[in-house]
Design a protein that fits this description.
Layout (H helix, E strand, L loop, with lengths): L4 H25 L12 H5 L2 H12 L6 E4 L3 E5 L9 E8 L8 E4 L6 E5 L7 E10 L2 E10 L1
Antiparallel strand pairs: 1-2, 2-5, 3-4, 3-6, 6-7
């Protein structure tokens, strides 16, 4: 068997194809590369997207905006002073896009205008925060990305 330039090209193509196919196989079937949607009910949630837009517009129209800050205590969510804390109901969701097992959700129960999520519930990294609440029958939604 002679080794000429045609044989070299064929071997290079075969080696490249084997490399690509092994990479694809590893990414698709190795448990180390976990594939998941951000939300399990993605298509169901898509139907309610206009409702979310309306809620976000309500939150953006507030005179005093909700403030979400990170401190050494954890994450602080400060509601407007004009709100009566007894009339605020809702939930706050923390999503870690890198690892869904670290997602959690808490009810919004206020004694003052500040809700503190303690640092022992948080792990360093990026979170998508979704604050969904009602006040006097009007619904609000705030989404924010933070790094803790």
């Amino acid at each position: 068997m002679k080794f000429n330039w045609g044989t070299g090209i064929a071997l290079a193509l075969a080696a490249f194809m084997i490399f690509i196919l092994s990479f694809v196989y590893r990414v698709m079937f190795d448990d180390k590369y976990e594939h998941h949607l951000v939300s399990e009910d993605y298509y169901k949630e898509e139907l309610y997207y206009q409702n979310e837009i309306d809620k976000m517009n309500n939150a953006n129209s507030l005179k005093e905006k909700i403030q979400i800050t990170t401190t050494d205590k954890g994450v602080e969510i400060i509601f407007p002073q004009e709100f009566d804390t007894n009339k605020i109901n809702g939930k706050v969701s923390f999503q870690r896009l890198a690892e869904a097992k670290l997602d959690f959700e808490l009810p919004v129960k206020l004694m003052s205008h500040t809700l503190v999520i303690p640092k022992d519930k948080l792990i360093e990294g990026r979170y998508d925060i979704k604050l969904d609440w009602t006040y006097d029958g009007k619904e609000y939604l705030l989404k924010k990305k933070i790094s803790y």
